[in-house]
Here is the input.
Amino acid sequence: MIAEHLPILQVVLPLLAAPVCIFLRNPRAAGALAVLTSWSALGIALSLLREVMSTGVVSYAIGDWAPPIGIEYRVDIVNAWVLVIVATIGAVVTPYAITSVESEVDRKRIPLFYAAYLLCLTGLLGITITGDVFNVFVFLEISSLSAYALIAMGQRRRALTAAFRYLIMGSVGATFIVIGIGLLYVMTGTLNMADLAALLPEVWDSRTVKVAYGFLGVGMCLKLALFPLHLWLPNAYAFAPSAVTAFMASTATKVAVYMLLRLFLSIFGRHFSFEVMGLDLILLPLALVAIVSMSLVAIFQVDVKRLLAYSSVAQIGYMILGLSFASVTGLTATLLHLFNHALMKGALFMALGCVVYRIGSVHIDAMVGLGKRMPYTMAAFVVGGLSLVGVPLTVGFVSKWYLILGALEKGGLWMGVAAIVLVTSVMALVYVWRVVEVAYLRDFAGDERVREAPWSLLVPTWALVLANLYFGIDAVRISAVARGAAEALMIGIGS
Amino acid sequence: MREEIVVRVGAKVLTPFIIMFALYVHFHGDYSPGGGFQAGVILAAAFALLALVYGLEAVQRVLPPWFAQMCAGLGVLIYAGVGVVTVLLGHNYLGYGALAHDPEHGQHYGIMAVELGVLVTVFGVMVTVFYLFAGRGTMKP
Here is the structure.
């Protein structure tokens, strides 16, 4: 009986746990409940993925109203994949948050922190699982509003301005998205994704649909922080509590990328996106500029959290680059990088959270000589950094491999794109090396009492680090899932 | 304003009617404009009016900040809980048809129940926001 309700439980479980966290009022109890919830969410996501792999699309009609009239939750291989990514990160970051948050957030606010955190998880899972475009908007607001609150809980007062800035930019993005959805509804009279995909071809020629496409595109690029619309991201990541940064950096932008893929490929279809609207021609230059310029900016950062935040914007560029190839290999690279980047950035930001826990700062000058004082933490940082660079035997290598493969497949001028990917990997090496050099090649000069971070922080961090290595070595199964998802996206859900 | 007898008596007389009106807006939500959200705002307005006239402390004795915060969470539980109940009764999530023999009645009960959840949450959030603004600097959330 439970099995048929899995799609709704995926969303409702964290939604129910969030208010209970407020009632508990005890930081430890709320944390324990959050951990339990995030683990069950992962269990549900995994069983959904298994079900989808064996039996195909899973559909759930909310309120017994059959789609397309009612709201449908529709799990196919694409969103089952993204659900697993989000739930995995949630399951790893939540236990980490217990210790990390205690040192960074006001004790009275910790239950509220977990409530907001679980709501954010609800929203992200909801965006991913739903088959209804208006529902996407609703969950987008749930995840965004709770994210603003989470970021504002950062220690420094600048967290408030960072959150406010994100609030403004995020609201503009959400408004654009809802305008786009509204225009689509006007033209087709439906909000169901599969139904939209079937009805849209009739009205493709109308200007309304093209304007809707534009609004949706800009709105989602704001949410996923594509290059010129990324300004909210560095400060939001830099000033949020460590656990929040680790969670958001590995999930929020990924879900936004998923949203973009779902709307533009599944609903509008690849023909409309690539041949009529020229999506690839718009995204390619933006992605390339994002990769090169943001890697360059990252090199000159002194706050390591900001450095990684800029690197995140560059990495989002790689994901969008894969999309702009308009090929199955390119999309496979995008989908793989969703997962891989979540693993590497999660590990890196969690390692930084360990540093913050011990020395209270991630300024590069404060990290001098930490390699000897906090060997496990800094080793985690190094492995995560290598993965970011794309060294073989790490997941970063797998992503870059598929990206370059996609570029080589297309040949001609795309060879240049492959070259840019290689050059920017070296740039990533430069900014990772800056930290490694400071941490390992110089003598520790800070407080003598600085010790290794506690196990409660190290174990989740290393879980992600080892995942970086494991999926870098055994990438066969993961790549197969990603390729299956890419093929499903290219076909669209209508046909 | 605490010295103005007309305002003090007026606020006292109006309060029960405002609360009644909130409930009317809630229960009449499926026949006329209104529903849980509007009802929650009106209900919160009743307490805001009292606070403006009698002072924040007086109202917080009746409606403590922690209670308002609980309400914000409780509403979500009511809403999501209704869905869980329908699942336990063998229907899909939020399939109100499960709530009565006649599915049409079930739809009525179901929508009233989830709207009640909306009412409670909106009321709790509105009061909390009002308290935070009115008691700026004196109260920790």
